[in-house]
Specification:
The protein has helices at 2-38, 41-48, 50-55, 62-71, 74-84, 92-104, 108-117, 122-146, 168-198, 201-213, 223-232, 234-247, 252-264, 270-278, 282-285, 287-306, 308-315. By secondary structure, the chain is mainly α. 39% of the residues are buried.
Length: 317
């Protein structure tokens, strides 16, 4: 029993230290967003987004949904969407467009701070994600209208659920639960990755997915961590990247490409399910999103090849 504890102790300690670092990011941002919500800044931001919503073929009211999603997370935006959907008729095409906006740009205060810790600049990440969201949304609207796709009413499966409450105690309790959940997830992920390394499976896992991730410039060493970010979320992938950075096993080129790809394509299981339950099209919000991410990554790789130092400086802005 003691030998088993001895084997796992370094992983537990590493996960706990990593969790404390993440809390230093999460707690201040949670408080700032709560203050913004309380004084009405998020509502104001939603109003400012109304012209953009019209530009991509959505009712102006959906600007508030995207504003909440950008400031907090996809769940908060989806639940607000459910409550507002009765006020305006939404086609499947429109929900898919809204879904891609939410998928490409959500939880930006927290996620951009995380990628900053990994070496990718806040301005670069913000521009990349907002530009990608609007580009895809505009393209979707153009294609759906041109080919008369998904013009039937959306089938909204997602039902309303209780939120974190309007009073500070409920909000604090909800935040505390989310922090504990992050700790549990990190313990599991760090332990899994350490076991993979210990038994030489990390290299094999990299070999399996290398042909696919090589399309976007991610190396074999970075493949497992990148997959964690893409499947579970940018916070978890970024946290594990921070651990790898401290170990010195990855070079800056690997780290930058990995975190940029996760910026555009992460949490593909949970987030995709949410958008589909809202009434969006699975094909357009998952495979097409991956193709778009791969296209952007190929452009970045091409630019790095000929102008490495300049592109690196831009990425770190």
């Amino acid at each position: 029993m003691k030998s088993i504890i001895g084997v796992f102790t370094p992983s537990f300690k590493g996960a706990f230290k990593l969790w404390l670092k993440i809390l230093k990011i999460m707690i201040p941002i949670s408080i700032i967003v709560k203050i913004m919500e309380a004084i009405g800044l998020i509502t104001v931001f939603g109003k400012l987004l109304e012209p953009i919503m019209v530009f991509v073929g959505l009712p102006g009211l959906m600007g508030l949904v995207w504003a909440i999603t950008i400031a907090t997370n996809l769940w908060a935006g989806a639940l607000l969407f459910v409550s507002l959907a009765s006020l305006t008729a939404m086609s499947m095409a429109q929900v898919t467009i809204l879904g891609i906006l939410m998928l490409m740009a959500h939880g930006l205060p927290l996620e951009i701070r995380m990628v900053q810790k990994c070496g990718v600049g806040a301005i670069f990440s913000l521009i990349l994600r907002i530009f990608s969201a609007l580009s895809l949304a505009y393209a979707f609207n153009y294609i759906f209208l041109a080919f008369n796709l998904f013009q039937t009413p959306a089938n909204i499966v997602l039902g309303s659920s209780s939120n974190s409450g309007n009073n500070l105690f409920d909000w604090a309790l909800h935040q505390g639960k989310s922090y504990i959940f992050v700790l549990i997830m990190l313990l599991g992920l760090v332990l899994l990755l350490d076991l993979l390394k210990k038994y030489g499976l990390m290299h094999k896992l990299g070999m399996v997915f290398a042909p696919y991730l090589s399309i976007i410039g991610v190396s074999k060493k970075c493949a497992p961590v990148t997959l964690v970010g893409m499947t579970l979320g940018l916070v978890y992938g970024g946290a594990l990247l921070l651990k790898e950075i401290e170990s010195g096993e990855l070079d800056s080129h690997d780290i930058l490409l990995s975190i940029i790809s996760m910026n555009l394509f992460h949490s593909i299981i949970e987030d995709t399910i949410i958008v589909v339950l809202m009434g969006g099209s699975l094909f357009w919000v998952l495979p097409i999103r991956f193709i778009f991410m791969a296209f952007i990554m190929r452009i970045i790789l091409f630019l790095i090849r000929d102008n490495k130092e300049i592109v690196y400086k831009l990425i770190r802005i």
